[in-house]
Amino acid sequence: MKLLASLLLCLCIPAVWAAGADMPKIDIGKGGQCVKDPQWMRKNHMRLLKHQRDETVRNGVRDEKSSLKNCIECHASIKDDSVIARDDSFCVACHRYEAVKVDCFECHSGERKSAWLQRNAK
Amino acid sequence: MSDCKINPTEINMVDLKRRSFLKTSLGVVAVAIAPGMLLFDVAHGKSEPASGKVRWGMLIDTNQCKDGCNDCVGACNKENGLSDKTGATDPQWIRKIELKDSSSGRALSLPMMCQHCEHPPCVDVCPTTASFKRADGIVLVDKHRCIGCRYCMMACPYKARSFVHEPLHDQNPDVPRGKGTVESCTLCVHRVDQGQRPACAEACPNKAILFGDLNDANSEIAMKIRSVASAQVRADLQLNPGIRYQGL
Amino acid sequence: MPTLASLHFKNRLYWVLLSAGMLVALAGLYAVHLMEHHGHIITGMNNQIVWGLPHVFAIFLIVAASGVLNVASIGSVFGKAIYKARAPLASLLSIAMLAGGLTVLMLDLGRPDRIMVAATNYNLTSVFAWNVVLYSGMFALVIVYLWTMMERRMNPWNKPAGLAVFVWRFVLTTGTGLIFAFLTARQAYGSALLPPMFIVLSFAWGLAVFHLVQTSIYMWNEKTIDSAILQRKKHLLGIFVIGSLYMVATYHLTNLYFAHQTGFEHFILFDGGIYPALFWWGYVVLGNLLPLLLLYLPGIQRDRWAALASLLIIIGGFALLYVFIIGGQAYPLNIFPGYEVSSSFADGQIAAYRPSLYEFLLGFGGLAIAFIITTVSVRVLNFMPQDKPYIAD
Fold it and tell me: What is the ipTM of this complex?
């Protein structure tokens, strides 16, 4: 029992130690809060996005508040207008840290729409 | 899974006041843009769903469609981020077909795309309900659900659908598309939802493509369909396509 | 009595065969990995030929998986002793081929990673969706059926389980035929004849596969099959082959009767290049006439000739499916009847298709999975048919 406890303790120390150390550095772009506070968003953004995507694609509700495009509009980096271009980009930094695969950007553009339009205006 | 459900009203109610403030203030900012400056677009929201009272459709006048003109195809490709390539594996949402009547020899030319059927076979056969018809009659592929089985491509009588054979990059933010899913003409749903016409209709130099609400008796398209002879392609299949052709 | 040396040799041969099977399966998985990475551009499939060689393999395996159960049904449902002794092996082959076929079908999807969506979003009007239920149900039923045969305490349930499998497999092959029968806009498909045609084809292909495997197992165990039993099996196989030929002929003849289909039939039967060649030489001559000769010619009674006939029937089956699936798509879809058409999207043109290496790898990977399941199971469990001294039923 003692052995187990000490073993657990040993295991906990590096975990606690690591927790604060390598937090991801995130380029939050223009940032700002428009839906909910950051802590809530960290936990629930995927549910909002998933809910919104079905509403938009299937029912045509284009409420921009929680649309992916609108998120990107503010959170794309000021440097390269993208949420996925670099290791510290808004989506990449956190998702890499949490080791969760983002499935959005195989189809969706990760670039700020206004920047895309400007670049593609002929 | 039930705890993942979000009450839509809860989301829509979030900070309505701030939203309208943001909208107006952002709108003011966005109008004044100097070249090279960062551009934050005004987001045009539309919180009502597509209406079942509307049925979007097109009337295409083949007499006005010029042999060899490809403007609608080019406009579609540009709008939706398709390459202009026409290889066997390249997606084509709209294509020009040159026809010659086998017996009389009369030649004509017309654009062919998803016919947005009232009873679409692609929707019937889709195993995952990825193919679906919106309340306003637009037939779409929900790429979040498409597993890429291509059964809809087999079922479509118009060969309207394409499969994305390669990874894509730099998509139009308004038109998400990706490898391994099936896609087709969306009737430019992202434009229609903002009150605009589809890109092909806007691009046609001879105004051969008339877009509008088939259900609204006073719309230009409904009035014209009442007064001129028009036909649906493969009407024998009784799918009631939303695209009609004049002079076929 | 086998000698020690021959047992050693066989043991080694077993591992060599198994490794070869694993290698082929791995090559198939590697092809899938590449297809996932590069997209379907590395296959020969395109926007005109949307279903290609993987579907030929998958549909053959699934249809044969249903047909092989015929052996079990004749035993369990109709109570024939010599078939009852072979029911376990037939069930095993069914599971193995179903697994192989479904793997190919699933891994050919554009987004195989999303396969769960097929379960969470179910479209009641889709034949494909019905088949998801039919295939998984078949899997479960056949496993239960095997259990009732191999576990003595479950033996009383054998007959109802056999009956359930019997019914289910008819529905399943009907479902497979319906995938094509519901494609009303396509000249090649959209025929109510297709489900019964697939059922009769499944009888022939399933029995051919069964016979081939049975011959191998008897050879492996240095036994010879009772000639009276062999004779009966050969007759049954012959009848199934004639039956399937009849169904295929009827399908083409009805098409020829409809004026608007004659163009398509001309293409498939006469001037379509590889497709008529595969149909006449591959399916009719190699897959039907030659096997019938081997089965019925009075001079040749050896079981090896029957095994060769079975192999030819299987090859003929692949040829027929290639013509049916790929030839059916290659002929231009008639969107504007009465007009000659041309466009940038191959309207009015014969579509070109050249299967790529990766499609072959995937297809053979599916065969390898079926092979591995069969080989391992036959080694660890007793699937050898146990015949009592033969008495006519």
Answer: 0.91
C 344-383 → B contacts, CB under 8 A: 344-347, 351-352
Contact C110/B145, CB-based, under 8 Å? no
Instruction: Give the pTM.
Output: 0.89
As a whole number, mean pLDDT of residues C119-135 equals 92
What are the DSSP calls for C113-173, one per residue?
GGTTHHHHS--TT-HHHHHHHHHHHHHHHHHHHHHHHHSGGGGGGHHHHHHHHHHHHHHHH
Each domain of chain A, given as residue ranges in start order, spans 25-119
Are the beta carbons of C352 and B88 separated by less than 8 Å? yes
C-alpha to C-alpha distances, C1 to C14, C222, C340, C387, nearest whole angstrom: 19, 9, 73, 19
Domains parsed from chain C with CATH numbers:
22-182 (1.20.1630.10), 209-334+346-355 (no CATH)
Q: At what angle do helices A68-75 and A113-120 cross, to 10 degrees?
A: 80
**Orientation of helix C357-380 relative to helix C87-107, angle to 10°:** 150
| SS3 (DSSP) at B45 | coil
Buried b (16+ CB within 10 A) or exposed e, C3-25: eeeeeeeeeeeeeeeeeebeebb
Continuous segment of H or E residues that includes residue B132: strand B131-133
Q: Is C210 helix (H, G, I), strand (E, B) or coil?
A: helix
CATH code assigned to B48-246? 3.30.70.20
Query: Which ranges of C151-282 would DSSP assign to H, the alpha helix?
Result: 158-181, 194-220, 227-257, 262-266, 274-277
Tell me whether C34 touches chain B (CB under 8 Å): no
Cα C246 to Cα C253: distance, rounded to the nearest angstrom: 10
Q: Is B49–A109 a contact, with Cβ atoms under 8 angstroms apart?
A: no
Q: What pLDDT does C260 receive? A: 74
Query: Please, which pLDDT band fits residue C257 given cuts at 50, 70 and 90?
Result: confident
Chain A CB contacts of B173 under 8 Å are 69, 72, 108-109, 111-113, 116
Residue of A44, A59, A62 to mutate, testing the B interface (most B Cβ within 10 Å of its Cβ): A62
Chain A interface test: which of B1, B2, B171, B193 (most A C-beta within 10 Å): B171
- Encode pLDDT of B126-178 as tens digits: 999 999 999 999 999 999 999 999 999 999 999 999 999 999 999 999 999 99
Question: How buried is A19 (Cβ within 10 angstroms: 0-12 exposed, 13-18 middle, 19+ buried)?
Answer: exposed
